[in-house]
Amino acid sequence: MNKTLYILIGVILIVASFYIGYTIKSPTSASQEIQNLKNQITNLQQQNSQLQSNVKELQNQLQNENGSENSQDSNTGAKGNIEYGKGDCMPCVCADEDCTGCPERTYSDFSGDIYFILKSDLDTLGDGDFDNLIESSAKTLVTNGNYEISLAPGEYFVMPRDVYQYDKNFINISSGNMVEKDFKFFKCTSY
After folding, report:
1. Is residue 24 classed exposed, middle or buried when 0-12, 13-18 and 19+ CB atoms within 10 A define those classes?
2. For burial by CB atoms within 10 Å, which of 18, 76, 108, 184 has the most?
């Protein structure tokens, strides 16, 4: 009986020593696992950044190709004048019927980038990245209010980067036509 008891105690001690050894080694392997996961996350983040960079490069190449395709037909596009104003948009309280005391909005010739976003792309954007849509759209540099751009046929929403007025500023481009259209944009500094 004592022999059986000694064997049973020996087996328990052996099992206990394996268990204790496992629990002592387990935190080390767990910390190694955590470190491996951190390294994998870092690698995935780097790959994600590289992929985003590649996507932007491909979008730029596509935009350049589209631009060169559009430039082949220089008779298809738009040109005109763009005016830009900035100021208070608070409703004016009029003392008389004709509101002669309300300040008028003043505009000047716009200089800067103007974007031509395909209306179909804008309408299907949903919760997508609006900034990415703007950057992937056709644009032209406006100087002293004058613009001219070759565009593929379609309906476009026109905007400078800082003024979004969806209810206005659309232009329809048809093949072989250089559409002349002027635009006015007003950026509200207060409401």
Report:
1. exposed
2. 76
Question: Which two structure tokens, joined as six digits, stand for 187?
Answer: 């950026």
Phi/psi region, residue 23 (left: phi>0; alpha: psi -120 to 50; beta: rest), is alpha
- Tell me the pTM: 0.56
With H, G, I as helix, E, B as strand and everything else as coil, classify residue 178: strand
State the number of CA atoms in the 13 A half-sphere of 23 facing the CB: 5
Dump the DSSP string for 30-58.
HHHHHHHHHHHHHHHHHHHHHHHHHHHHH
Contact 114, 140 (CB under 8 A): yes
Distances (CA, A) of 160 to 8, 17, 82, 85, 134: 84, 73, 10, 12, 10
